[in-house]
């Protein structure tokens, strides 16, 4: 298959031309927040502050405690709670403010942090592998690490690293927290403010508090400790039947990232390997149709899937093979993203495959998600405004899918990004602010994959598409310029609250 074409005269649909990257407004760059300052070990500074800290009632790690505390002088005033509050810079007693020699605790979100592993007074806390037992109880961390695929060098630390966000995601459940955390000694260590996910809540809705990925991780941790799991150990599964994008921004790479970030295990049936970067596609190697079908059979037969999506299908034989296997097996709700070309205008579907797409695949689809050029290609209708989106949705619905979503990324640019959803009766609009960025590589895959992930978790189509739209909007806000051309949408906004723990120590091995 030719990787690039030049317009209608050579068969390549010029509808797939996107506005040139350079013509768009500058990228919206978002960093992961202020860099974490890392300094030298502050043992000396910590030791200088010891008297004040001891007055404040801090529980000090043994390694910075130079000598046992002196016995109290007879008649000396017993430390009262107010002293502790004052020393920590909180309210209490008459004089609010830090005790002499104890630095004021930085405000939440003030962006200041001490050296890694140090609390607000500059005292090093014990390293994670010595603290982790408070989170996961003693022993068993090795198995937890094994289950979670984490490094074995510091299993408890690794388990703690995973457990902490899981606990945070669980919100309430004081007993559950206590069970895992154990008894806390000393004051609560300072935690820096969490980075707010970019774009989250743009539509007044947040992703669910009870994040399925984290609940599941916690479930596995508990199972490894022999404690009854909080939720089932196996996450929902979804399958993508799609091409590989060597640049990683679109295709199955984008699908897998999105699946994970939406709480499902992703499986793949690879249809083609593309040689692709941020500037375009320079090569395509198709996978034989029977091998594509065999991948679907293997995944569905053994692992099982709650929902399936298609992306780049490359050729009519591959479409036929996928249609055959989807008819035979239970692939769950079936989302067809009728990918015809890349955003750079490189063809990803042979022109003679359009008919197979219309007649074999669309009738099987729970939801089909064309962009405006694809909708035009499939229906022959111009799709240049909202009315055109609705008309195309009606025409596509007549081809057999249960739902049609005509996306608005290429429609009325400069206005909000509005997608039109149609089920044969209702016409619904999903509206989001349009982000001024040229880095929109993978938007369509991201939307379809997120929607598929939510379908795999049992949501209905409207709810799944709403969340898919919410996800892709945040991902466009989080997009970044990787390469000289169009950069990919970003997924890091979903994982930025990884705890600022130190990784486990790498110590010389005594074995061998
Ligand atoms: N600049 C943008 N800002 C916000 N949302 C966008 C932007 N560009 C595309 N989208 C959204 O991303 C999704 C994919 O749209 P579209 O670009 O039309 O598909 P494709 O990537 O298949 O060409 C749609 O929900 C669309 O509204
Ligand atoms: C393998 C593969 N699948 C899909 C796309 C479409 O993504 P985009 O429209 O963002 O280029 C792509 N470029 N490559």
From TrEMBL:
Q: Which UniProt keywords apply?
A: ATP-binding, Kinase, Nucleotide-binding, Thiamine biosynthesis, Transferase
Catalytic activity, EC? 2.7.1.49, 2.7.4.7
**MF annotations from Gene Ontology:** ATP binding; hydroxymethylpyrimidine kinase activity; phosphomethylpyrimidine kinase activity
Q: Where is the composition biased (Basic residues)?
A: 64-79, 102-111, 181-194
Q: GO CC: one term?
A: cytosol
Q: Which CDD domains match?
A: HMPP_kinase (cd01169)
Gene name tied to this protein: thiD
The residue ranges of the Pyridoxamine kinase/Phosphomethylpyrimidine kinase domain are 245-489
Q: What is the species listed in this Swiss-Prot or TrEMBL entry?
A: Vallicoccus soli
Sequence ranges of Low complexity compositional bias: 21-33
Reactions catalysed? 4-amino-5-hydroxymethyl-2-methylpyrimidine + ATP = 4-amino-2-methyl-5-(phosphooxymethyl)pyrimidine + ADP + H(+); 4-amino-2-methyl-5-(phosphooxymethyl)pyrimidine + ATP = 4-amino-2-methyl-5-(diphosphooxymethyl)pyrimidine + ADP
Q: Which InterPro entries match?
A: HMP/HMP-P_kinase_dom (IPR004399), PM/HMP-P_kinase-1 (IPR013749), Ribokinase-like (IPR029056)
Q: In which pathway does it act?
A: Cofactor biosynthesis; thiamine diphosphate biosynthesis; 4-amino-2-methyl-5-diphosphomethylpyrimidine from 5-amino-1-(5-phospho-D-ribosyl)imidazole: step 3/3
* Record SUPFAM superfamilies: Ribokinase-like (SSF53613)
Which Gene3D superfamilies has this protein been placed in? 3.40.1190.20
Q: Which domain of life is it from?
A: Bacteria
A Gene Ontology annotation in the biological process aspect, one of them, is:
thiamine diphosphate biosynthetic process
* UniProt protein name: Bifunctional hydroxymethylpyrimidine kinase/phosphomethylpyrimidine kinase
What Pfam families does UniProt report for this protein, alphabetically? Phos_pyr_kin
Q: Where is the composition biased (Acidic residues)?
A: 1-12
> Which PANTHER family does the UniProt entry name for this protein?
HYDROXYMETHYLPYRIMIDINE_PHOSPHOMETHYLPYRIMIDINE KINASE THI20-RELATED (PTHR20858:SF17), PHOSPHOMETHYLPYRIMIDINE KINASE (PTHR20858)
Chain positions covered by the region annotation Disordered: 1-138, 181-207
**Which function does this protein serve?**
Catalyzes the phosphorylation of hydroxymethylpyrimidine phosphate (HMP-P) to HMP-PP, and of HMP to HMP-P.
Keyword Transmembrane helix, does the record have it? Answer: no
């Amino acid at each position: 298959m030719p990787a690039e074409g030049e317009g209608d005269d050579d068969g390549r649909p010029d509808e797939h031309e996107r506005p040139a990257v350079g013509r768009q407004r500058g990228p919206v760059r978002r960093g992961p927040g202020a860099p974490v300052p890392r300094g030298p070990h502050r043992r000396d500074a910590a030791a200088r502050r010891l008297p004040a800290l001891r007055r404040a009632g801090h529980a000090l790690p043994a390694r910075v405690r130079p000598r046992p505390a002196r016995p109290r002088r007879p008649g000396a005033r017993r430390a009262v709670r107010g002293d502790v509050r004052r020393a920590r810079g909180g309210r209490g007693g008459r004089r609010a403010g830090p005790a002499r020699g104890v630095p004021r605790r930085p405000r939440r979100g003030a962006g200041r942090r001490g050296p890694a592993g140090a609390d607000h007074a500059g005292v090093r806390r014990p390293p994670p592998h010595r603290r982790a037992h408070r989170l996961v109880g003693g022993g068993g961390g090795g198995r937890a690490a094994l289950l979670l695929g984490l490094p074995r060098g510091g299993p408890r630390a690794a388990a703690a690293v995973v457990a902490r966000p899981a606990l945070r995601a669980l919100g309430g459940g004081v007993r559950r927290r206590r069970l895992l955390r154990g008894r806390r000694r000393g004051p609560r260590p300072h935690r820096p403010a969490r980075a707010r996910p970019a774009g989250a809540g743009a539509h007044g809705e947040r992703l669910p508090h009870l994040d399925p990925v984290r609940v599941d991780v916690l479930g596995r941790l508990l199972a490894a400790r022999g404690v009854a799991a909080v939720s089932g150990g196996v996450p929902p599964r979804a399958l993508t039947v799609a091409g590989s994008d060597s640049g990683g921004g679109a295709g199955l790479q984008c699908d897998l990232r999105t699946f994970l970030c939406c709480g499902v295990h992703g499986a793949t049936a690879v249809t083609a390997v593309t040689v692709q970067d941020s500037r375009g596609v320079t090569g395509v190697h198709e996978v034989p149709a029977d091998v594509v079908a065999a991948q679907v059979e293997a995944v569905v037969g053994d692992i099982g899937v709650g929902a399936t999506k298609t992306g780049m299908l490359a050729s009519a034989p591959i479409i036929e093979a996928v249609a055959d296997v989807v008819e035979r097996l239970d692939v769950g709700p079936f989302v067809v993203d009728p990918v015809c070309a890349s955003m750079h205008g490189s063809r990803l579907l042979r022109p003679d495959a359009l008919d197979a797409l219309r007649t074999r695949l669309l009738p099987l689809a729970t939801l089909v998600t064309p962009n405006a050029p694809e909708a035009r290609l499939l229906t022959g209708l111009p799709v240049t405004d909202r009315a055109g989106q609705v008309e195309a949705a009606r025409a596509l619905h007549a081809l057999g899918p249960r739902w049609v979503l005509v996306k608005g990324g290429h429609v009325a640019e400069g206005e909000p990004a509005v997608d039109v959803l149609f089920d044969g009766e209702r016409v619904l609009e999903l509206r989001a602010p349009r982000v001024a960025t040229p880095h929109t590589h993978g938007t369509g895959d991201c939307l379809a994959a997120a929607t598929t992930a939510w379908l795999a978790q049992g949501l209905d189509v409207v709810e799944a598409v709403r969340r898919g739209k919410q996800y892709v909007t945040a991902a466009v806000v989080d997009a970044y310029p990787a390469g000289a051309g169009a950069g990919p949408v970003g997924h890091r906004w979903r994982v930025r609250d990884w705890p600022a723990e130190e990784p486990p120590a790498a110590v010389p091995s005594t074995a061998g």
